[in-house]
Amino acid sequence: MPDGLDPLRDALDFAIEKEEEARLFYTKLSKKARDAGARRLFSELAVEEMRHREKLEQIASGGGIGRFVASARGRKVPDLKIADYLVPMDPAAEHNYQSALVLAMQREKASFRLYEDFARRVRDQALRGLFLALATEEAKHKLRLETEYDEFLKEN
C-alpha cells in the first residue's frame, strides 16, 4: 500500500493511477475489437474508469470524499464467480472477444481484491470508506463483464 507522509493523498494518487491504467486498457481493447458490441462495451468501461479517475481527482483537490463513499455504502454487488474458474490470460497476447472478456474480468477481480485488502489494513475511516467504494466500483465492472461473458457463451 502507498506509504508516504499523507496516507489519504498517497491512496488517492495510487487509485488515480490505477483508474487511468484501466481506462487505457479498455480503450486499447475497444480499438482492437472487431465486433460493434465489444467495442461499445469496452468503450463504456473506459468512460466509467475515466469518471472514477475524475471523482478521485476532485477528492484529491479538496472535494468531499463523503459523497463518493456514500454512493457505495451498503451496496452488495452480486458475484457470479465466473472469473474464479477461468485460466489466467496473458495480457500481452492477442485476444479474441472471449479471451478479452476473461482478461478484463480477471483485472477487475484483482482490482477489487486490492482495494478490499487496503480497506482491511487501514484504520482511518475515510480512507477505509474510499477503498470500499473503489472495491464496489470494481465489483460492478466485474459483474458486468461476467454477465456479458455468460451471454456470449449462451449465444456461441
Order of helices and strands: HHHHH
In DSSP terms (H or I, runs of 4 or more residues), the helix count works out at: 5
**Largest β-sheet summary:** none
CATH topology: the name is: Ferritin
CATH superfamily: Ferritin, core subunit, four-helix bundle
Q: Write down the CATH class.
A: Mainly Alpha
> What overall geometry do the principal axes of the alpha carbons give?
globular
How helix-rich are the residues, as a percent range?
over 70%
Number of domains: 1
Structural class: mainly alpha
N- to C-terminal separation?
41 Å
What's the Cα radius of gyration?
16 Å
Number of strands: 0
Low-confidence regions = none
Helices and strands in order, then pairings?
Blueprint: H1 7-32, H2 36-60, H3 65-72, H4 97-121, H5 125-155
Overview of the structural elements:
The chain has 156 residues and is an all-alpha fold. The chain has a single domain (7-155), classed as Ferritin, core subunit, four-helix bundle (Ferritin). Helices cover 74% and strands 0% of the residues. The chain contains 5 helices and no strands.
Summarize this structure briefly:
Helices cover 74% and strands 0% of the residues. It is mainly α and 156 residues long.
Comma- or semicolon-separated keywords:
mainly alpha; globular; 5 helices; about 160 residues; Ferritin
